[in-house]
Design brief:
three-stranded parallel sheet, Dipeptide-binding Protein, domain 3, alpha/beta, two-stranded antiparallel ribbon, 2 domains
Length: 238
């Protein structure tokens, strides 16, 4: 959600969206390949401590929107044309309408999608679907490129929420300079909670990707990382 402009510059509206999204509905849309998730760090990542800050509660979500009473209720919802992401976008559009917004879905070619939503000069970048694949297995790779104010760029932007909190910026920068140890792991767990209190995202799940291999492969040697998936160098024939 674009935290720099109405209606998502209001924290009550952002929290309302989080409460309104039903993880079970998204799991159905993604045919069971999506595990419910309501935080920044995924399972298996240092600093991950499971919590559910926004259990599904449409009535509570509507009360928050009523309290915020945003003057701008016209919202463009962005997604790409790869199924089931289109269906997820349609679901999100419906959720926003249930909250009293005039939501319209904008579907963009998958080949162009991230270039379009990463250009901050594009009009009506209100909210939409996106996902993230790690560059390196470290919790900083979730916070620095996606949630630090200094990462907001005119083009190739990956801080799609344009989230810019000075206190959290300082924590992200400091932790990024420090070697990862037990103390830093605890701080990343706390940072996860602090960011989700601000609700710049409505995390919709973690993908469970299945790998099918031939019976000729030695399965006991296959290495599967909870972060990167399967390690192709570990595949060998019996």
């Amino acid at each position: 959600m674009n935290t720099q402009q109405p209606p998502f510059d209001d924290i009550d509206v952002r929290r309302a969206v989080n409460y309104a999204i039903d993880p079970a509905a998204l799991r159905r849309i993604y045919a069971g390949s999506l595990q419910p998730h309501q935080q920044i760090l995924p399972p298996g990542m240092p600093g991950y401590e499971k919590f559910e800050p926004y259990p599904h509660d449409l009535a509570k979500a509507r009360r928050l929107v009523s309290r915020a009473n945003p003057s701008d209720r016209d919202v463009t919802v962005w997604t790409n044309d790869s199924p089931p992401n289109t269906e997820a976008g349609e679901y999100y559009e419906d959720v926003l309408r249930r909250l009293g917004f005039h939501a319209q879905l904008k579907t963009v070619s998958t080949a162009l999608y991230f270039s379009v939503i990463g250009n901050t000069s594009v009009r009506n970048l209100d909210t939409g679907w996106t996902n993230w694949l790690l560059d390196y297995p470290h919790p900083n790779d979730y916070f620095q490129p996606q949630l630090a104010g200094e990462s907001i760029q005119p083009e190739n932007n990956t801080n799609w929420a344009q989230f810019n909190d000075s206190e959290l910026n300082a924590k992200i920068a400091r932790l990024g300079r420090e070697q990862l140890g037990p103390e830093q792991v605890d701080e990343y767990a706390a940072l996860d909670r602090e960011v989700m209190e601000q609700a710049p995202w409505a995390p919709f799940g973690v993908f469970a990707i299945t790998t099918f291999v031939s019976s000729a492969i030695e399965l006991e040697d296959v290495i599967v990382s909870p972060i990167f998936g399967h390690d192709l160098t570990s595949f060998r024939f019996k």
